[in-house]
Amino acid sequence: MKKLVMIGNGMAGVRTIEEILKVSPEPFEMTIFGQEPYPNYNRIKLSNILQGETNFDDIIINPLDWYQENQIQLFTGEAVVKIDVDAKRVISDQGREVDYDELIIATGSNSFILPIPGADKIGVTGFRDIKDCEMMIKSAEHHKKAVVIGGGLLGLEAARGLLNLGMKVDVVHLMPNLMERQLDPIASSLLKAELESQGMNFFMEKETVEILGDNRVRGLRFKDGSEVEADLVVMAIGIKSNIEVAKGSGIYVNRGIVVNDFMETSVPHVYAVGECAEHREIVYGLVAPLYEQGKVLANRICGTVAEPYHGSVAGTQLKVAGVDLFSAGEIFEDGSTKAIMVYNEYDGIYKRVLTRNNLIVGIVLYGDTKDSTKLYRMLTKKEDISGKAIFQTDCGTGDSSDIAPMPNDELICGCNGVTKGTIVEAIQTQGLTTLDQVSHCTNAGRSCGRCKPMVSSILAYTLGDQFDAAAAQKTSLCGCTTLSRDEVVAEIKAKGLTSVKEVMNVLDWNMSEGCTKCRPAINYYLGMVHMDQYKDDRDSRLVNEKIHANIQKDGTYSVVPRMYGGVTTAADLKRIAEVAEKYDVPLVKLTGGQRIGLFGVKKEDLPRMWEELDMPSGYAYGKTLRTVKTCVGAQFCRYGTQDSMALGIELEKKFERLDTPHKVKMGVSACPRNCSEAGIKDIGFVGIDGGWEIYVAGNGGVDLRPGDLLCTVKSQEEVMEMTGAYLQYYRETANYLERTSKWVDRVGLDHVREVLSNGETRKALNERMDQTLKKYIEPWNEAIQSEEIQDKYYAKHTIKVGE
Amino acid sequence: MIETLTRIPVAHYSNLKARAGYSIKIDDKEIALFKISNGEVYALENRSPHPKGGVLSEGLVSGEYVYCPVYDWKISLVDGRVQAPDEGQVRTFKVDREEDIIFIVL
Ligand SMILES: Cc1cc2nc3c(=O)[nH]c(=O)nc-3n(C[C@H](O)[C@H](O)[C@H](O)COP(=O)(O)OP(=O)(O)OC[C@H]3O[C@@H](n4cnc5c(N)ncnc54)[C@H](O)[C@@H]3O)c2cc1C
Q: Domain ends where: A262, A284, A301?
């Protein structure tokens, strides 16, 4: 396999990888280095986070699962410091060396920090990443006065966010007009008036020369000698392509890493994409052009013949509530341009289209941007405007009547290049009814989100009478329904629905047999509601749970038998060894959960291996209790204060096989040294003198999170009682596929504590838990006993043709 | 040009369970056979068109579609086409049924 390495794990780079996964005829072995300790997130939305409209979890574009599913090796929190272009190898700041056949540099850019005295004081920041954002949010908790340097897009969005966080905000701008690179003076003055009315204070035509203060910033001094106070300074004067790693490695750089029309740098097999790349002397700072670059680069790397990159004209919007603004192309008139203008000072509406030789070359819209998609299309497609109406005459409200005349190739989502036609087609052919579904299917609205009202209008227009505005906005279970999780569960209870099929029928699913999102979820909810009365629908489970083994990337499976509490015997080990030998198992490995996994098993061998092992399934594949990891504890360890192995085994025996919304891991340590790492388990138990501490919502995986202390109890019985109640409450209230860590963050630890503090409630929860546990039977043994199951799920039918 | 078609008996119709996929190996070809809820039977090459491949026979079946078990691509059983936003196509095979015998036409 060819090795593809990418430096930088941001928006442009990861989009390029997505494009490669789509078009590549052959897989690559991919490695990505990202300096930030996160998977790829939507940087654009940092403004919305600061403005309090969304949170960090919601802006992740590619969760860690995505990297795993696509077998991409990801190193986060690790920067590449050197490229050895002769040896075709990159070297990271942790000394890791990785060889490449093809290398993508996608290092983005950094905030430009003014080189003035005091710029390194505490309380001075750029506005570029999650770290900056967190710093601002924290500052706002303790400090009152912020100064934003820079009255451009980024600066104004930051300023609005800081206002929302309760700070007083001054904006300092070097030029006489705000956003002077996107707006003309009239639009700019309208914008300034609006922002002033929102509470921003402006210092125009001021050059900052020094940042004052001791350790922490106290204020700034301007060139004219005047000073202002500040506890927080945000520098948003511009960005600087991040070219260090290329520069030091002999790759030709100018302002950015210079690339040709195929995104190739001066060194063979090394490419650059995104804000670090300079194409025809332009470095782009908006995602739309970067995503176009990504497409071109993906085709190049995969050897697909396609259009080269010719550069882009990008449209700009400002993500500040109460401000409606759009700008694209040229701003300034020269002798050869003619302007078309509408100025309604009373309503605060201003539109100016700049034309040259009957073609639109620039657009500025303020106060009403309805025409933006149409005008932008005319600009980019170079449509002749003679005899055409440029602005809409009526004051439409963005409702369906505006959609009908819109041509199909009109661009709706600028960031992702999605046209009206694509959206309409997706709605019609896939029966979509919510905004969420349209975003999933087409990518529209997945980046800056500004086009969502327009997508919603298209949805309304396309669906006509069937459009349900309230339903269109909420998060449905999946594309097959408009109902949310809570509504589905409520309907199951109210209408007494008892099978997956019935749920989909009665609740009017638009795909009559559902999809991979809703079928497993409904199956879970039914089992949760009806306890031991529900017969599991095996065909609504995904491959691993259906086959009771983990599918591996080559189509083979793994077998992981139960090893309660990680305790085994010599006899069991012998048996495992014999089976492994007999079936020629390619890999025998200790798993992370203290047991033994046999990897690379052929599907048709599974039932016989299980039979010979004669051990219960370890459910290493399920949304259920995985393992209970234990330390040695008081039986042998000189530090152990409690019998951790005994408790671990009791827990695992009681809760094994239980269906839960997502996988559940437990750990039991006999003392606070915590050798079983109980602090990062869904439920962790730590033995102390005279009792146990119970920790919940820990996670050692995708979202690393230490557990919170739920309570301290005295005896092993109390541990079992509390654990049963906690688990059952999680089962009854979490969304399917929501880990306990996410669930606790959503509903609140205090809430969970309060619910579980009531003895009656705990008793009722435990009763429902016990009733549910009655229904489970050991699945491997069931398969061994049933020919029907073997034929349906495990047989491979081989037929020889010919004489 | 004359094409030679081979009809190969592969299964008893009555043995096939609805919404289940069966993997059938004919010489070196691996075929996934699906019976869907309305009783129709379809045969596809048992390999996802995802660049990284993977089998289809273990996928979740919904109406005339199967979801590839490893990458969750939605694939039409009728014409093998991958549904948006993903792209691609799986080879399909004609299925004949005579009495209780299912044939695949190669
Ligand atoms: C607050 C804010 C609001 C924005 N709003 C909009 C908007 O409304 N519309 C719009 O189109 N655009 C907007 N943008 C711009 C948009 O986010 C960027 O254009 C886009 O993120 C650039 O993508 P990229 O992949 O080139 O760089 P990035 O997304 O910055 O990714 C580069 C990554 O590479 C990492 N990296 C750098 N050097 C190394 C190294 N040596 N080794 C490993 N990793 C490294 C960096 O840490 C970073 O994570 C906004 C930006 C910000 C900050």
A: A301
